[in-house]
Design a protein that fits this description.
Shape: elongated
Bound molecules: calcium ion
Mean pLDDT: 96
Distance between the termini: 25 Å
Radius of gyration: 24 Å
Low-confidence stretches: none
Amino acid sequence: MKNGVMIQYFEWNMPNDGQLWNQLAEDASHLAEQGFTSVWIPPAYKADEQQDEGYATYDLYDFGEFDQKGSIRTKYGTRAELENAVAALHEAGLQVLLDTVLNHKAGGDYAERFEAVEVDPDDRNTEIGTPREIEAMTGYSFEGRGDKYSSYKWHWYDFSGVDYDAVTESNAIFRIIGEGKGWSQGVDTENGNYDYLLANDIDLDRPEVAAELEYWGHWAVNEFGFDGFRMDAVKHMDYNFIRKFIDSVRHTTGRDLYAVGEYWSGDIEALLEFATNTGETLDLFDAPLHYNFHAASTQGNTFDMSTLLHGTLVERKPGLAVTLVENHDSQPGSSLESNVEDWFKPLAYGLILLMKEGYPVVFYGDYYSTGCVASPHRKIIDILIDARRNYAYGDQELYFDHPSCVGLVRKGEEAHPGSGLVLLMSNDCDGTKKMSLGETHAGEIWHEITGCVNHEVTLDEHGSAEFTVPGCNLAVWVMRPSEQ
Ligand code: CA
């Protein structure tokens, strides 16, 4: 969708009150009015305990329908409430993207014994000691659901690794041994082989497992009408499986489903390799851009703003880039903490929402609240989304030509009368920059729309002017309304 905007509709510290689906249903028309076009919802199926965010997945078919793991509802509500929310979002014209966790399962129902070998956590190709029989919770009977929707029951041979042995009561990474088993080869090479992330690691090389998960994807889309997937932890999953899963679900549902993968790495080469290996069948979060935002926000005026886009997906593979400022893993207190400091967030959102490249995501914690504390950024994000919808069109010229003051222009296009904009950002003192919109804009009077600059500028015969930005801030300039 042209100039679409996604919202990640959850953060890490939300209350376990079962109200998120109800809140989302009530919020649907507001989200559409504000300019959002898609909603990324959290893992919506039963986890190992009710308060879990959903990433410790137990049963992919239980969206809050069966009495399992201590309750019927999930942290976010019941299946009926989720269906109601999806219907409300579709009614408002928004797409719904499901957070999809296929790397691992948690909360096994019973213990099983099998052969395994401990491996070095820093190099999972190196064995520690000799293979032995261990015991872990790898049996899944799904007593509450029974055989409804799927009769597949999971066992130790459906997994490639676990993190606990009950025989010796030891916490370690164990690689499960069996015919044809081993770490998947199509994964990230950090720690030797990064197949194993946590809990019971699913053996995606096993044809029965791959077929069951593909069936589930087809079932979930048909059952709920999801418009696509946010694929969790793809860095730890065989890229052949990822590609086949998405292709298969698109084919069996006959729908052009959207997909974005979480390959959380600051290494642009690793992302590009994954993109090639998956035939560019799914977009990727621009984690390197997030890390640049993190660095810029923590280094203050010593960060060279002209390097802000260096080594990012928007620079190297813009067609696949899903751009974000913050998410549930980077926010303070979470597993991959690398948060972007508050003073820089308006600048970062200005860039992802107004530049030509990328499909931007707004984080719930930045738009609404974190742990019930209201975000200070909602007003500026609303202004920027509105600017994206009205002005962010046409050719783009980058002005990443100064260590502290950088920006870009969008030259506008005929299909959107009055469109075109200037974005300027400074991480130091007040800045000015001569920028050109092109001769078609000659003589126009422009003003600033975030409220940080009061004067107007008149574009010269070439469509150029000196635009200004206050220190440590962003400025967004557009044509004055009376001229439109
Ligand atoms: Ca894995």
